[in-house]
Specification:
The chain is mostly helical. It has one domain. 42% of the residues lie in helices and 4% in strands. Strand 1, helix 1 and strand 2 form a beta-alpha-beta unit. The radius of gyration is 15 Å and the shape is globular.
């Protein structure tokens, strides 16, 4: 399950709600199935084009916030690194 649209204020869903929902899913045992993203596909989201919040938003804003809220580093690494790596893993077709 991927939680998308972090840093997207136009959807008016507070990030605290998204984080709380993630916490609930982790407590229910779904940590190995979660990923977080931003859906930053427009030029207006990139600082290099004069927009924001920039691709650094998740690692520089959300990750520290999660750690300050008491998330353990293991869970953060799982959701931001291990789960996406597993999801995007390429397995060549067997012949």
């Amino acid at each position: 399950m991927c939680f998308d649209k972090f840093a997207r204020v136009k959807y008016r869903i507070p990030e605290e709600w998204r984080i709380k929902f993630l916490e609930d899913l982790i407590k229910e045992g779904f940590e190995s199935q979660l990923m977080i993203s931003m859906d930053a596909g427009r030029r207006s989201y990139y600082k290099s084009y004069g927009g924001g919040p920039g691709l650094e938003y998740l690692p520089k804003v959300i990750v520290p916030r999660l750690l300050e809220m008491g998330w353990d580093e293991k869970s953060v690494k799982r959701i931001f690194f291990e789960n996406p790596r597993e999801f995007l893993k390429f397995s060549p077709r067997k012949r």
